[in-house]
Structure formats: C-alpha cells, structure tokens
Design goal:
39% of the residues lie in helices and 20% in strands. By secondary structure, it is of the alpha+beta class. The protein folds into 2 domains: 73 residues; 233 residues, PPM-type phosphatase domain (Phosphatase 2c, domain 1, 4-Layer Sandwich).
C-alpha cells in the first residue's frame, strides 16, 4: 500500500508540474517574452516531458495494482476455497457475491468436507460485509476444518466453533462493546442419506425434490454465535429428512433473500428455486447458474450485502459411502472447481 500511495503521489506531482509549466510559459508578462513561436516550442517541450512522466507513473501504478490483485485473489481463494465438484457422492456447486467492489470474498463463508461421520457442511454469515470480515471468516473456517473431523456429533463441532469465535473476538476487540456475531448452519449428510442440522440464527435450507422446492424449517434456531452463549445442556441436531437419489439441498445466506431491485422489491428466492427445480434431472451447477443469473438481473449492480449460495445433489443410486479415511472434501474425490461467479 505504501508503494501504491507513492505511485499515486508521483502521478499527481507530474500532472501538477506539467500544468504549472505550460501555464507559466503561456501567461508570463510580455516584457519577459521571446517571440511567440519560441514560447510555443518551449510549452510543447514542457508538455511532452510532463506527459512522459505521467504515462510512466501510470504504467508503474497499473503493474503494481495487477500484482496486488493477484496476491489478493490467491489469499481469498486460500481462505474460502472453491469446493470440489463431487464430495463422497454428492454433486457440489457454490457461488459467492461480495458487497465490496473488487473483493471476491466477504463476510459469508461455506465449506464442505467428507468425514467418517458423513459429509459435513457449514454455511455462515459474519456481521457486516466486505474485507473487514476476513479475520472472523478465517477463524470460523479454520476451526470447522479441524472440528468436523474430530467431533463425533454436530453439537461438539458447534461448541468448538463457539470457543474459537470467542477467542478471536477477544483478541480482535478486547475493549470493544460492539456486538459481533456469526449466523451458522451446520449440516451433516450421513451414509444412508439422513440429514441432521444445527442452526444458529441462519436461514434454513431448501430441499429440491422432483419438481418441488420446499424450505426445511423444523424449529426455532439457536441465537447467532457470539451474541449469546450456547445453553449448558446438550446441543442436539435436528433431523431434516433424507436426501434421496436426485434430491438436492440448497443453502444460502440472507443476502440472497434480502436482495432488492431498484424499486425496493425483494428477490423472489422461493419462486426462482421452484422454477429451477422443474428442470430434471437436478444439477447443482445448473440450478446455481439459474439462481445467480436471476439475482444479477434483479439487483443490476453490486449487492448491498454479501451473498453465498451452496448446493449439494445426491447423484448416487446407492446410499452414500462413509468417508472412512477422514479425508477433507477438498481433493478427496475430485479437484476443486472455481466458483460459478464472483461480484
């Protein structure tokens, strides 16, 4: 950033210098003037030198911005890695839109891993948006990637996430009374296709089955992590039914359902999902392509909040296999795909 600011200052000084030199040559008193042609030549020389300095500074600044953009993209992809196209028999696709122009990652997070307990998924939304939420996203994802393999049940995973978030917030905001929290949805898809979940203030997922898209909302969620402590009693996951062959699970952050168009109308997410479910067989990538296209058309610009969409489709005729080797979904079944889109 220091190098960029130096380039910008150099560009500004070159511009000011050139303009001042040309202005002086053309407006100095007549008593000091040579003939008009000499003054025009002198002005042209000053202008050419100033233009050269400006173009050189501009090229240097462009190269520096491109280099930093590559570094930022690599850091963002390392933080929120694109999921593989297949995780233990599930067809997976994800798309994310950032509310901050130029950033591919914001305050939304997701991850899919294959464990010996089944495929485990996290979808979350950090309070706020844009690059300011990177630290909290990193803390939550780093903890989940370990806890998902270590903990036998989702309740244990959730308590690990709560402790990790508390430590992070204490380090980042030791004297800050502002409320910082994360909404989270933890999902486990077991070997027989059974789905269980834990919800902390996050939108419930949709299941696409046949030609129907239905929201799975078995009860009231827990409060968002960081806002209130989890209860001392056991935190038990709730059942969401079974993911049959061809069925899909659609997870999202509230930026999708809260997105508005120019006239203030909310994005009709249920209707768009219902329309996408009519095209059989259901494909995770195709459904998310339709939803993200409809979102772009609805918003027509940069979204007001970060948006993340994730879809998992059961593409196997037989029950899902247990991961057995506790391998992460990244690289366990297929190489990672790039997200469908980034804003």
């Amino acid at each position: 950033m220091i190098r960029i600011s130096g380039r910008v200052r150099g560009l500004g000084l070159a511009t000011v210098w050139g303009a001042a030199a040309v202005t002086y040559e053309l407006t100095r008193p007549l008593a000091q003037q040579d003939d008009l042609s000499a003054r025009i030549v002198t002005s042209a020389v000053f202008f050419a030198v100033g233009t050269g300095l400006i173009l050189h500074a501009r090229r240097s600044l462009t190269r520096e911005l491109r280099r930093l953009r590559r570094v930022a993209d690599a850091a963002q992809d390392a933080l929120l890695r694109p999921p593989p196209s297949c995780v233990d028999g599930l067809d997976v696709a994800a798309v994310r839109f950032s509310a901050e122009r130029g950033a591919a990652v914001g305050g939304d997070l997701y991850e899919v891993v294959a464990t010996e307990y089944g495929v485990r998924v996290v979808m979350g939304d950090v309070r706020g948006h844009g690059i300011g939420a990177f630290g909290t996203v990193a803390a939550v994802l780093g903890c989940f990637r370990e806890a998902a393999h270590d903990e036998k049940d989702l309740g244990g995973v959730l308590r690990r996430l709560e402790r990790a978030l508390d430590r992070h917030l204490l380090q980042e905001h030791p004297a800050d009374d502002a409320e910082e929290f994360v909404t989270l949805l933890l999902v486990e898809i077991r070997a027989d296709g059974e789905i269980v979940a834990l919800n902390c203030g996050h939108p419930w997922p949709y299941r696409l089955s046949g030609t129907r898209a239905a929201e799975l909302a078995p009860g009231d969620p827990y409060p968002p992590l960081g806002l209130f402590p989890l209860p001392d009693a056991d935190v038990s996951a709730v059942g969401l039914g079974c993911l049959e062959h061809g069925d899909a699970l659609f997870l999202y952050t509230d930026g999708a359902q809260d997105a508005r168009d120019g006239r203030g109308r909310f994005f009709p997410l249920p209707a768009v999902l219902q329309s996408a479910a009519r095209h059989e067989p259901v494909s995770s990538r195709e459904v998310l392509t339709r939803v993200s296209t409809a979102l772009r058309h609805h918003i027509r610009g940069t979204p007001a909040d970060d948006i993340a969409l994730l879809m998992l489709t059961n593409g196997r005729n037989t029950p899902l296999r247990g991961a057995g080797n506790r391998a992460s979904g990244h690289g366990a079944d297929a190489p990672g795909d790039t997200p469908l889109a980034s804003w």
